[in-house]
Amino acid sequence: MRGIIFSILGGTFITLQGVANARISQQLGTWQAATLTQFTGFLMALMILLIVRDGNRQGFKQIKPLYLMSGSFAAIIIYSEVTAIHQIGITFTISALLIAQLCLTFLIDTQGWFDVPKRKMNLPQFIGIAMMVAGVVILKF
């Protein structure tokens, strides 16, 4: 149940962040919005880390460099999302974003990329993805 709650929270805040970034970018520019968002996100994460004080700092040495770069992906995410919101609107942007996430996670799960255990996908999973794509197509029209 906690996983579902955190998923809903994450999805909610991704949407709110996208809308806020689109508004910021109208005043400052898209890369400035991405920079501001990354900076405030860093400050919030740092504050929470200092309060919670969990985790293992010695574990940094064992992390693959690719995984350490993942924070830089956020700059591309923010830029792409803000640009898409300006071009096609928030609803279609988030719908397309979710389908892109689902398709990539499908590949990650089935191929076992990034040290994720391989999972076999069956007909119901394929039908679910097809229904989501159809839903976005219907939503666009």
UniProtKB/TrEMBL annotation:
Keywords: Membrane, Transmembrane, Transmembrane helix. Pfam families: DMT_YdcZ (PF04657). The chain crosses the membrane at residues 32-52, 64-82, 88-109, 121-139. Signal peptide: none annotated. One of its GO terms (cellular component) is plasma membrane. PANTHER family: INNER MEMBRANE PROTEIN YDCZ (PTHR34821), MEMBRANE PROTEIN (PTHR34821:SF3). This is Transporter family-2 protein. It comes from Fontibacillus solani. The lineage of its organism: Bacteria, Bacillati, Bacillota, Bacilli, Bacillales.
